[in-house]
Amino acid sequence: DNEDAAYSKEICVESIFPVDQEVRMCISQAANSVGLKEIPNFQVEMGEEIDWITKNQESFQPVEIAERLWIVPEWTSPPVAEAVNIILNPGLAFGTGEHPTTKLCLLLLQSLIKGGEAFLDYGTGSGILAIAALKV
């Protein structure tokens, strides 16, 4: 039947394993978990060696929140030394200062905090809002 000929009976799954990982055992467990009686054919290739920490760090640059408020990754120098510079080790999702909600909260803090107020950063990720409340 022509309709069946359009669909392949093969599935290609790609995965990344640590160099010391027993790949055959992982594939055997995966195959077993979906009810396969035999280990499917597989091929192992060595990938390019990448320094993921450096690659990740290269993606983060200082972020200007307001005229005198910057979020600066700890591995770079503040672009404006006399500004309020929040030095952080940004994570993958939170703490970079780039998310619109974080920027808005930082701008609000800058306009509301006059000094001496109590502040709670509930649900702290990187602590960026608490640090900003202390420094602005």
UniProtKB/TrEMBL annotation:
GO function term, MF aspect, one: protein-lysine N-methyltransferase activity
A single GO cellular-component term on record: ribosome
Highest taxon listed in the record's lineage: Eukaryota
Pfam families: PrmA
Keywords: Methyltransferase, Ribonucleoprotein, Ribosomal protein, Transferase
SUPFAM superfamilies recorded: S-adenosyl-L-methionine-dependent methyltransferases (SSF53335)
GO terms (BP aspect): methylation
InterPro entries, per the entry: Ribosomal_L11_MeTrfase_PrmA, SAM-dependent_MTases_sf
UniProt-listed PANTHER family: ELECTRON TRANSFER FLAVOPROTEIN BETA SUBUNIT LYSINE METHYLTRANSFERASE
Family indicated by similarity: Belongs to the methyltransferase superfamily. ETFBKMT family.
Protein name as catalogued: ETFB lysine methyltransferase
Native source organism of the sequence: Noccaea caerulescens (Alpine penny-cress)
